[in-house]
Design a protein that fits this description.
- The protein folds into two domains: 65 residues, NigD-like N-terminal OB domain (OB fold (Dihydrolipoamide Acetyltransferase, E2P), Beta Barrel); 212 residues, no CATH class.
- Helix content is 20%, strand content 30%.
- It has seven helices and 16 strands.
- The strands form three sheets. Strands 6, 7, 8, 9, 10, 11, 12, 13 and 14 form a nine-stranded mixed β-sheet that branches. A five-stranded mixed beta barrel has the order 1-2-3-5-4.
- Strand 2 and strand 3 form a beta hairpin.
- Helix 5 crosses helix 6.
- The longest helix has 15 residues.
- It is globular and about 60 Å long.
- The chain starts with a helix and ends in a 21-residue tail after the last helix.
Amino acid sequence: MRYPIYMLKTLFLTAAFAVPAAAQTQDFSALQNFDASQIQEVQLPDLQLPSDKSWGVNYILKGVVSVTEAGPLLNTIDGRLFRLDLSARKAAKFDGKTVLVEAQAKQADDLALLKVAEISEYEPKASEVVPAPYQPRRRTATLLENKDGRLVMGNVRMSSSKVPAVDSYEWTTMTIKPELIKNIYFIKKPFKPEIVAAHSFFVFTFEKGGLTDANGHEPMALALSIEGKTRVGQSFSPLTGLKRSFGINWSLSTWEEYAARTIHEEKGHLVPYPVRLSHAEKAALLRESMLQAAVDREGEFYHTIKNNCTNNLLILLNRVLPEGRRIKLWTIPYMVYNVKATMPLMVITNLQKKGILGSEFTDINAATLNTVLP
């Protein structure tokens, strides 16, 4: 199959730009001579466009199929329930059976319906290999409480020291009052070469009393970073991110911990851009971000183009923006993704033109690490 040149350009550019913080080694040498022949060698299933539309989020799940009046359902081993886009004939064949399903959901905030690509009966084998544990830096956020105008989130990474210990992580719960939101920042985390590579994430600042940890301390801000969920011994690259290589994790941490680890451990720097929203929109975006961060995404795959650190931030923004200000995510709906909605450097320019982002606040580096985000 031959691919149109615009698809090849999109694939190359997005692989270069949409790099998550999960990367332990930022090696972009593989992209320098990335051409069509290499794309063919990668054999990416998402480029084999089906006759109908390709949705944005890949899943592989194990569970039991049940046929109901509402249609076929998949009950996963960990208790989640999905509707299946599956023919009545196939659904009847697997009714009541444990199956392995390869499927797609529309996007990260719309996971209820899965369009099934492959389904087969599943019987675990005695010799089945147990995968390595996930790397300890990332835990899935949990929603412990949501009432009386406050959210209590678990698995928030923090540090009790100004310089976090390498490969050692501390965790806390955080009480959040959305009505006390102050500002939101879209943060750019450049990688070398900085003219093409970056990670991006949100940071939320609060009025006094808006953000409190389990010990009553009030951090400067809260960070939400959407990253590849890699296992011990597994590393990230833009090319492997195009395949179903690793999961996805919506990680929460204090701004102080994230910034200090970036600067001291990774020798990097961070660039904040204020998000221009009304107070009501900021509070809504914070709430939506926390609710989505707590979604169980086991079986969901990171994708360099369609399910990455940056496009999911825009999905969150679209949940609170009025229709006329929403960002277009697909150039051709569910076939070709809009590069201005997935590549961090292009996203920043695009959002600034739309009046959604302001100018760069200041560069956060070793000399400015203690700068307070207003």
